[in-house]
């Protein structure tokens, strides 16, 4: 008779130390932030000689503490491989991006349900969100936004959070007489979610995220908040693009095909 | 009528098994497979596993269940990204809905095993070390903060096994998949209940998804 109690041997799929790779976005105290969103903690090693923009391979334990670090030579991330034609940009004086208003919750649910479910186990939210948003644009012509949530160092430290940002497509949805913002985050939620419900999934303190239009407010602030929220057009893929916009005043008004192909290849089964 | 006949026969076999001593070691493999309603067709079924109770660990687990049926062959692939290095019991459930926070009926902040089962139903197929039979000795489950599970089975054997134990057909479309198990040292309220005789931490669901046919 099959035992009711779980006493038997278990499938020997032992947990391994994880290896993460990428360029360093920032080093804040004991936290190393990689451009791909991952976080590693410098609480188990004595010396860390690397700096912003260095490409590194970091072995971390199950608490995301750094075990070893090596510099990567010739590392090319999806950002490095991306072609960035200047035609994608306009000046701030140009007409703003106007998202489509989706007619009703049923339509919103359809968009959620037809999002590509064949993402890879190891894939980045930036690539998934980019493909989901643009696939929907091709399917229905609906233009969407992106919701970027940025987690502060104090929050990351308090819960040993493994990412410093997360992003998902956001749609304007008309429900009776009001227009709601609904996030379509197929990997983490069962349904389209309001912004606050969505951030609550990641911010366990349930503190609201401070809304900002400037990436620098998150990147250089004293980290008194738990999180920051930026709502941007579907054409912004990664935080660095938000930073560049702030520095140069150039707005992204479209996405390149090569960029989309790259995101699809990185994040989804072919 | 065919289905009723099949159910009747299988029910009597269960009774025989229950009372007969020797046969209670497992499924009677002599059940004519044609009497069991078959899985409708070949195909691929996929459930995206989304987090439940993730505030307990400070991590946001996700996973995928991918089931392919080709001829008599059923192949199940699951993966989970979690941070609890424990055994993760996983199963396809009889129900069709994942629990939500509103199913935390005692409002202790945790959707525990019994609360989840009330919504998602009992076990249809345990995704363990022997996919062919839930009654085998191989009730072994993947362990680790992240794992990949890959098992194969005979469709006919699985259908017979499922029907005998649950009285239900295998039909996968719309079924719920639950993966259980948080770290033993997780601070849990005393009100958190458990299924079977397991510690509560072993039966707390960490991800849930609903199987959909994808092609």
* Distance linking N and C termini of chain A: 43 Å
**Count of separate structural domains of chain B:** 1
Percent of sequence in beta strands of chain B: 25-35%
What is the SS-derived class of chain A? Answer: alpha+beta
Largest beta-sheet details of chain A:
7 strands, mixed
CATH-derived architecture of chain B: Sandwich
Element order, helices and strands of chain B?
A: HEEEEHEEHEHEE
Give the terminus-to-terminus CA distance of chain B.
30 Å
The whole-angstrom Rg of chain A is 20 Å
Total helical elements of chain B:
4
Brief descriptors of the model:
heterodimer, A: 270 residues, alpha+beta, OB fold (Dihydrolipoamide Acetyltransferase, E2P), C8orf32 fold, 2 domains, seven-stranded mixed β-sheet, five-stranded antiparallel β-sheet, 8 helices, 14 strands, 26% helix, 27% strand, disordered N terminus, B: 215 residues, Immunoglobulin-like, nine-stranded antiparallel β-sheet, 9 strands, globular
Helix and strand topology:
The complex is a heterodimer of chains A (270) and B (215).
Chain A: E1 18-28, E2 31-34, E3 39-41, E4 55-60, E5 66-71, H1 78-81, E6 89-91, E7 101-103, H2 105-113, H3 125-140, E8 145-151, H4 153-159, E9 165-175, E10 178-183, E11 193-194, H5 195-202, E12 210-211, H6 215-220, E13 227-233, H7 239-248, E14 250-252, H8 257-267
Parallel strand pairs in A: 7-9, 12-13
Antiparallel strand pairs in A: 1-2, 1-4, 2-3, 4-5, 6-14, 8-9, 8-13, 9-10, 10-11
Chain B: H1 2-19, E1 43-51, E2 62-70, E3 73-81, E4 90-93, H2 113-120, E5 123-126, E6 146-154, H3 155-166, E7 176-180, H4 200-203, E8 205-210, E9 212-213
Antiparallel strand pairs in B: 1-2, 1-8, 1-9, 2-3, 3-6, 4-5, 4-7, 7-8
């Amino acid at each position: 008779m099959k035992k009711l109690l779980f006493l038997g041997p278990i499938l020997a799929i032992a947990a391994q130390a994880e290896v993460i790779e990428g360029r360093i976005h920032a080093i804040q105290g004991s936290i190393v932030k990689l451009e791909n969103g991952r976080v590693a903690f410098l609480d188990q090693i004595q010396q860390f000689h690397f700096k912003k923009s260095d490409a590194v391979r970091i072995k971390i334990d199950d608490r995301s503490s750094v075990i070893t670090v090596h510099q990567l030579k010739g590392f090319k991330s999806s950002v490095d491989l991306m072609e960035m034609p200047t035609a994608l940009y306009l000046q701030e004086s140009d007409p703003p991006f106007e998202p489509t208003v989706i007619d009703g919750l049923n339509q919103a649910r359809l968009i959620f349900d037809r999002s590509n479910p064949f993402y890879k186990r190891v894939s980045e939210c930036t690539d998934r969100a980019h493909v989901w948003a643009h696939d929907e644009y091709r399917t229905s012509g609906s233009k969407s936004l992106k919701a970027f949530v940025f987690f502060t160092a104090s929050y990351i430290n308090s819960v040993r959070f493994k990412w410093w940002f997360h992003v998902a497509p956001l749609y304007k949805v008309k429900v009776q007489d009001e227009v709601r913002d609904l996030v379509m985050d197929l990997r983490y939620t069962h349904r389209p979610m309001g912004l606050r419900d969505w951030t609550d999934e990641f911010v366990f303190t349930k503190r609201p995220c401070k809304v900002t239009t400037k990436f620098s407010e998150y990147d250089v602030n004293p980290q008194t908040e738990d999180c920051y929220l930026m709502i941007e057009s579907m054409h912004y893929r990664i935080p660095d693009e938000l930073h560049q916009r702030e520095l140069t005043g150039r707005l992204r008004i479209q996405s390149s095909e090569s960029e989309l192909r790259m995101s699809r290849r990185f994040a989804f089964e072919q | 009528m065919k289905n009723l006949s099949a159910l009747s026969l299988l029910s009597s076999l269960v009774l025989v098994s229950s009372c007969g001593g020797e046969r209670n070691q497992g499924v009677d493999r002599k059940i004519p497979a044609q009497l069991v309603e078959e899985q409708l067709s070949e195909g691929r079924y996929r459930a995206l596993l989304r987090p439940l109770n993730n505030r307990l660990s400070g991590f946001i687990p996700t996973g995928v269940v991918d089931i392919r049926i080709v001829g008599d062959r059923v192949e199940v692939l699951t993966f989970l990204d979690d941070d609890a290095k424990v055994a993760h019991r996983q199963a396809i459930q009889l129900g069709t809905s994942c629990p939500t926070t509103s199913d935390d009926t005692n409002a202790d902040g945790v959707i525990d095993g019994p609360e989840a089962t009330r919504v998602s139903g009992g076990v249809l197929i345990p995704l363990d070390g022997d996919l062919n039979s839930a009654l085998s000795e191989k009730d072994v489950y993947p362990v680790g903060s992240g794992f990949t599970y890959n098992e194969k089975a005979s469709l006919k054997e699985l259908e017979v096994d499922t029907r005998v134990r649950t009285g239900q057909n295998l039909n996968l479309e719309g079924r719920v998949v639950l993966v259980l198990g948080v770290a033993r040292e997780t601070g849990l309220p005393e009100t958190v209940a458990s299924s079977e005789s397991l510690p509560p931490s072993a039966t707390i669901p960490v991800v849930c998804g609903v199987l959909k046919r994808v092609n």
